[in-house]
Design brief:
- This protein is mostly helical.
- The chain folds into 3 domains: about 70 residues, no CATH class; about 45 residues; about 90 residues, no CATH class.
- The chain is built from 6 helices and 5 strands; from the N terminus they run ααββααβββαα.
- The strands form 2 sheets. Strands 3-4-5 form a 3-stranded antiparallel sheet.
- Strand 3 and strand 4 form a beta hairpin.
- Helix 4 runs antiparallel to helix 6.
- The termini are far apart.
- The model has no long low-confidence stretch (mean pLDDT about 85).
């Protein structure tokens, strides 16, 4: 330990070495000062045109790395062609992989505003379309055509069922094929009492008819979803 004189308790700077009266007379320093090797490395890395290369900047926290590199890149960017705008939009086929769209520089914000305006306009107009008389008329005509188509399919299926020895019965789960023997529908207990050969023959014909029923129901459901 050494005792210090009071005049050594702080560092003083001689104003004469500044060569100016005020800081307004000084020119601001540009670029990265005292890091010639780092600047050469930055220029070298930025001149690499291939994909897969990166530049890593290391240093102590608070030394201005980010600001210095950002200013350096901004100066270089002024001499380069303006890159395109990249926009990511929703991918309806795969929500986890957005679609990337390349647009001319400056058009990204225009595209964003256009899409926002488009959605706003759709929300305003679409409800009115479904409330219009023209839509109601077309929908009623479509429903009527579907009902006629449904009746036609049911008539065809009834005819086919009768040819195969069944009648169709409507249930909460859909149409059910009931076997007919000697012109009379039989119950489940009566079906179980039949011989194995007769039951096997009925089951084969029922499976064939069930396949046609399922196909007809799919057609009706598909057309109903189109409304």
């Amino acid at each position: 330990m050494k005792e210090l004189a009071f005049e050594k308790l702080r560092k003083e700077c001689d104003p004469k070495i500044m060569r100016c009266e005020t800081t307004q007379e000084l020119q601001p320093l540009e670029g990265i000062i005292g890091q010639e090797r780092a600047v050469r490395a930055l220029k070298f890395g930025l001149d690499i045109k291939e994909l897969g290369f990166n530049i890593y900047v290391a240093g102590y926290s608070g030394t201005g790395r980010m600001t210095a590199v950002k200013d350096f890149l901004e100066e270089i960017a002024k001499t380069k062609p303006t890159p395109p705008d990249w926009c990511y939009v929703y991918n309806f086929n795969n929500p986890y992989e957005p679609q990337a769209i390349s647009l001319p520089s400056g058009q990204g914000k225009v595209f964003q505003k256009d899409m926002a305006d488009f959605i706003s306009e759709v929300r305003r107009i679409l409800p009115k379309v479904f409330e219009s008389e023209d839509y109601s008329t077309k929908r009623a005509a479509t429903v009527k055509a579907m009902e006629e188509e449904r009746r036609r399919l049911i008539d065809q299926l009834n005819k086919k069922a009768q040819e195969e020895g069944f009648i169709l019965q409507s249930t909460p789960l859909g149409l059910l094929a009931i076997p007919v023997i000697r012109g009379k529908p039989i119950s489940d207990q009566e079906f179980l009492a039949l011989s194995s050969k007769v039951k096997e023959d009925i089951q084969k014909r029922r499976e064939k008819l069930d396949a046609e029923l399922r196909n007809a129901m799919r057609q009706l459901n598909f057309r109903r979803k189109g409304l």
